[in-house]
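Section 4.2 – Deliverable D4.2 (structural model, holo form)

The reporting period included a commitment to supply a predicted holo structure for the target in complex with 2'-deoxycytidine-5'-monophosphate. Inputs used:
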Amino acid sequence: MTDRTAPVVSIDGPGASGKGTLARAIADRLGWDWLDSGLAYRGLAWVLVHEQDGRVDDETVLAGLERLRFETVSRRWHLFVGDRDVTAELGGEDLGDQASRVAVRPDVRARLLPLQRACLKPPGLVAEGRDMGTVVFPEARLKVFLTASPEIRAERRWRQLSAGGIHANLYRLTEAIRTRDRRDCGRETAPLRPAEGALVLDSTERTVPDLVAEVLARLATAGLPGREE
Ligand code: DC
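Output (structure tokens):
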């Protein structure tokens, strides 16, 4: 059950800025749950692509939304379509692009709001996405906005894909990242932007341990020390 008194750390930012790595590290340190909210939008895109032949009329989208739910598996919120855990199938670039397209719709965002909020329960939640600190969890105890240049983000994505044996074109990846940034930042409902008072971090020239250390230091100041290792 949702417990709005449980604490939240929000981490927002564009794709491939390192949000996932940072969020997981902070959640591990605190012993809290970890929510990657992008899974909800990717999950909807998955349903539309795999089960609805890519149709995006209102009725089909609504029916798709009805089938999504989050469930925790070892402190991470996984995305289910009906009884099927599709979390591991949601990583691709194409699905990310489709997700960004359905995410501009106010009706989709409104329907996914309670689903995400229901992920908050004790001892706490680290939530990453585009609007965690601005819309979904405005009460977050610490709000982080993580960014990096499009070029370095495309390079990271390229490395990830190469490591997985997928050949990608770096120039096209950079263009795709720029297009998605424009869509996510330019939409009317819950556009990507730093929440008021957010700790803005640029990961372009910083290592993950360095960023984790800065967030942990801020947490300590906010009275949320990490558990002993
Ligand atoms: O973080 P990601 O790449 O998994 O997100 C995929 C798309 O989903 C992103 O381009 C926009 C949308 N999204 C969103 O609108 N709000 C969120 N909180 C998370 C993702």
